[in-house]
Every structure is written in C-alpha cells, then in structure tokens.
Amino acid sequence: MRVASGLYRVGGISRCRPRQEAATTQQSQSRGRWTSFPQTDLSAMDAAYDKSLRAQVAGLRRRESSRSIDVWRNGRLPESATNFDERALLCLWPQRMMFIGRPGALPLHRHPISVCLVALQAPLRIGTRMAGESLTCLTAIVPAGLSHTLDPSGAPVAVIYNDPDDPYYRRLSPHQGCGLSSLDPDIESSLIVAVRNLYALHQAGHRLRFDDFDFAAGQALGIEPRPPRVDARVEHIVSIIRADIARNHSIQELARRVDLSPSRLQHLFVQEIGVPFRTFRIWIRFRHAVERVGGGDSITSAALDAGFASSSHFSHAFKATFGATAASVLKDAPSRVQIRLIG
Question: What is the C-alpha to C-alpha distance for residues 343 and 339, in angstroms, rounded to an integer?
C-alpha cells in the first residue's frame, strides 16, 4: 500500500511531504484483513484512500498560501458538516480514550492533554494562532494547551487521548514537552491501517477486535512500562479528586491536607502530573460524564453528576476543549455514537 507521508521543517513546525512507501508484509496482511470485510462497506473508503491521498496532501500544501493561513489562525474554518455521516465510535479504557468519527471542521480549541490525530481517508489540516504555523499531515501529535483548528476535509478522523496522571502512551505523556509534529512515516502507516480496520468493523456491525490497533498504537506512541512515580502528596490529592469528582475542592483546602502552601502544591502538581490542578480535574470530569452517557444517562444528568454547574457550563467547556458541541458528539447515543467501556 502506498502512504503519503514524510516530514520537513518550516518555521519550527514539522510538515508533511509526499513519499512513496513500498508495501510491507505487515501492511499487505492488514490490507488483506481490510478487504475481507463486506465490499459494500469498505471498497469506497479503500479506493479513495489509495488513489487520492497522495495527491490531496501535495495539493493542500501547494494551496496553503493562497487559502490564507489567517483563516485557520482566527478559527474561521470553511463550513462543513458538523453532524456525523455514520455512527461514531468512542472507546474508553482505564488510562486512555479514543474517538473515531466525522467531526467536521473544528474552530480553535485546546485539549487539556496531548492527543494523537489519525486521518482515515483524507489528510488533516491543522492551524494555530502563531503566524505561519500549520500542518498538513496524516497523523499529528498535538501538545496539551495548544490552541488549534482542525479540518479533516469531511473525512473520518481518530483522536487518541491519555489520562495525564497515569499515561498509557509515552509520546502522549504531558512530560514529553514536544511541539506540533507528525509521527514517523515508517510507523504511521500501520497505525492508520489499524484504525481504519477497527472503524470498518464498527460500521459493519461486527465484534470489535483491538489487538491490531493496540499493537500499532503501541509501536507508534510507545507504552509506559509501569505507572510513573508520583510524589506521595500529589498522589493523595489525585485520589481525593477521583473519589469525589463532583466536589469543587479548593486549592487551599487540598493544600492543607498535605501540609503545603497553595502555591507550592500547584507547582508540585504540575511538576509531577504535567498539567495544572484544574486542568486535571476538568479532564477527569469529562471522562466521568462520557462514561455516564455511555451508561444511558442524559447529557444534563451526566454533566451534573460529574461536577459541572449546569448543562450549559458543560457544553461551553466541552466545545472549548474538543472543538465540537457536546450535543453533536454525545446526543442520541447510542444511535449516533457508540460508547464502549473497555477493561
């Protein structure tokens, strides 16, 4: 299989260059598994990917200047469908989470943790507030706290997340400190194929098998061999937050529990976990709310149970974090999105 990839650097940002890769045995085997599914579900995606992806990556790069990167920086992306064309998939493991679907073009948003983006059919276009900083690619690592836009060209995209206090993937750990970049072209193709195959199983209504995805994601992102060592005082604070997610513990209250000043606790928390205290808490609350929706709760009920003041508070925070509205992702589950709790 041919994959459009390769990197070069402009203005401190890694960007994609079309590159032809010979098919490896593993890729051929993955392709065989791919085409073994019903042709009505997969042939169009496979053909679109193989025939046009290289041309799209090259064409988007050539048009970047004429399309005005200012449009991306200011969050005014071209209008595209904001609803999913097919049923999306949202998987939650104890230490990680993954969304696969068609979110449409997303305005400026900022993830509280580092994420990995994976294109399934068409290249991704990522823009930032910084002048001249943009990325056209098939995979991307977006660091925590980076305000960015995302245009997946109307195609499906996968977003892979870590829990910050117990990271599963090493490259998504908040301690990595990397900038906006793509995965190595020698390993990204296997991850793309594995995600496409998983999504195809989901769309065909088959039982999901995660072995190939887990292997490819582990190769691409690295797996933490053991939980990172955390200062006992910070570990205690994390356990307090997780035990009572809905409670708004003040930093002063928590600092007293571990005999630290509020400023020292905040500094130590970032040093040990990699993200600020409030950022960590809102991520845990998002996870909890999604789990409750997956269990059958309404969005409003799940948001309140997770500690958000109201459904509007949850919706505002959700859009600022993920770029899409909570309703567009979670409403009418499981008819529009299947939420899988794994492990």
Answer: 13
- The whole-angstrom separation of Cα 202 and Cα 264 is 47
Residues with Cβ within 8 Å of 183's Cβ and at least 6 positions away in sequence, in order, are: 116, 139, 140, 141, 191, 220
C-alpha count within 13 angstroms, C-beta hemisphere, residue 241: 22
Global confidence as pTM = 0.75
Q: How many CB atoms lie within 10 A of CB 120?
A: 23
Task: Return left, alpha or beta for 124; rule: phi > 0 is left, psi -120 to 50 is alpha, else beta.
Answer: beta
The residues with which 223 forms a beta bridge, in sequence order, are: 169
C-alpha of 73 from chain center:
20
Strand 134-137 to strand 157-162: parallel, antiparallel, or no bridges (unpaired)? unpaired
CA pair distance 180, 145, nearest whole angstrom: 11
- The series of mean pLDDT values per 10 residues for the chain, 343 residues long, is 36 38 36 34 46 50 37 32 64 94 92 93 90 83 91 95 89 79 90 95 93 95 82 95 93 96 96 91 94 92 95 93 90 84 86
